[in-house]
């Protein structure tokens, strides 16, 4: 959670400094891309698609003194007298570039110019190198990101007028992005049986609510709700997966009646497959964030 929050804060910082650029209609910024190549996934923090070049960004939100060390291909972070090693961000971002190039070749969009940047988003970070001979021109502070992108654009505009290819790539990247849904089972070893089921009271957080005469009733505070099952289903999709059957719904919402369960499923207009007695429903969720985001920047990540 802490790691994810730091990453998210870094992205917000980056977004803030890209405000001017992101208003350009020819530019698109994608965060947290997750793509598959040869049955394996690779992730990209941020990708800026411009008409002439694709800029791959690795965002580092790290406090303290951050020393790049090419001898051992590592980065050392010193914070409050404690030292910690990380992988070298330049090696990391170059690896992602190779993976993206391979992916694009597989998608039949080769010869697209890609360049990389490591963006340090924590203003208090001191960036250092182990030896004075080490030089990394693509490691920058977030304050300078916009200026750097503009100069990259000028440079690539002369070299590669690859407008069409980049357009094609951007459409494909959005289509092929597979968001990471991290189930607690896989990450923390929490089994399905340990997850507390039921509809939660929106007033007092009590579990479970009781279904009575077409609404949900809380036995603790007496609160009533018509659609408290919606957030229960959102929880279900994040904890257990986005496929659900009538039987699974009854178990999760503590419902006896198959008919009531069917009514609820039908009221939500979920896409489904299968025949009458064996229907699988797919829980879809549209967050407000996705629809109200004003800039061209989009968050692919479902959980913050
Ligand atoms: Zn309650």
Question: In terms of topology, how is this protein built?
Answer:
Elements: H1 2-17, H2 19-22, E1 28-37, E2 40-49, E3 54-60, E4 65-69, E5 74-79, E6 82-87, H3 89-106, E7 114-120, E8 126-129, E9 139-141, H4 145-159, H5 163-176, H6 184-188, E10 210-212, E11 215-217, E12 224-225, H7 229-239, E13 243-245, H8 246-253, H9 258-267, E14 272-275, E15 278-282, H10 288-292, E16 297-299
Parallel strand pairs: 1-16, 3-7, 4-8, 7-9
Antiparallel strand pairs: 1-2, 2-3, 4-5, 5-6, 10-11, 11-12, 13-15, 14-15
Helix pairs in contact: 8-9
The protein binds zinc ion (ZN).
The span between the termini is 9 Å
Return the domain count.
2
Q: Could you give the order of strands across the largest sheet?
A: 9-7-3-2-1-16
The structure class reads alpha/beta
Biggest sheet record:
6 strands, mixed
Q: What is the count of DSSP helices, taking H or I runs of 4+ residues? A: 10
Estimate the strand proportion: 25-35%
Give the number of DSSP strands.
16
Shape field:
elongated
Which ligands does the model contain, each kind named once? zinc ion
Average the pLDDT over all residues and give the rounded result. 86
Helices and strands, in order, run as HHEEEEEEHEEEHHHEEEHEHHEEHE
Could you list the spans in which at least 5 consecutive residues all have pLDDT below 50?
Answer: 286-304
Please bin the fraction of helical residues: 25-40%
Radius of gyration: 24 Å
């Amino acid at each position: 959670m802490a790691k994810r929050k730091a990453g998210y804060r870094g992205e917000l910082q980056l977004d803030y400094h890209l405000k001017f650029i992101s208003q350009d209609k020819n530019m698109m910024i994608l965060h947290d891309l997750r793509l598959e190549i040869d049955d394996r996934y690779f992730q990209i923090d941020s990708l800026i698609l411009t008409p002439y070049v694709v800029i791959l960004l690795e965002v580092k939100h790290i406090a303290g003194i951050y020393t790049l060390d090419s001898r051992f291909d590592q980065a050392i972070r010193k914070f409050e007298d404690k030292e910690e090693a990380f992988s070298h961000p330049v090696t990391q971002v170059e690896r992602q570039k190779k993976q993206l190039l391979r992916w694009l070749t597989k998608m039949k969009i080769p010869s697209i110019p890609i360049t990389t940047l490591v963006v340090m988003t924590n203003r208090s970070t001191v960036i250092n190198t182990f030896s004075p001979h080490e030089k990394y021109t693509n490691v920058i502070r977030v304050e300078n990101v916009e200026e750097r992108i503009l100069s990259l654009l000028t440079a690539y505009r002369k070299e590669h007028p690859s407008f069409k290819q980049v357009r094609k790539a951007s459409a494909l990247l959005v289509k092929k992005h597979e968001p990471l849904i991290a189930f607690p089972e896989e990450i923390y070893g929490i089994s399905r049986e340990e997850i507390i089921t039921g509809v939660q009271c929106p007033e007092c957080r009590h579990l479970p609510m009781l279904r009575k005469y077409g609404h949900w009733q809380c036995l603790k505070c007496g609160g009533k709700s018509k659609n408290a099952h919606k957030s229960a289903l959102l929880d279900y999709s994040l904890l257990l997966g986005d496929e659900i059957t009538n039987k699974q719904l009854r178990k999760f919402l503590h419902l006896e009646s198959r008919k009531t369960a069917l009514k609820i499923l039908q009221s939500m207009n979920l896409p489904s497959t299968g025949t009458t007695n064996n229907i699988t429903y797919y829980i879809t969720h549209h967050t407000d964030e996705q629809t109200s985001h004003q800039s061209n920047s989009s968050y692919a990540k479902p959980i913050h």
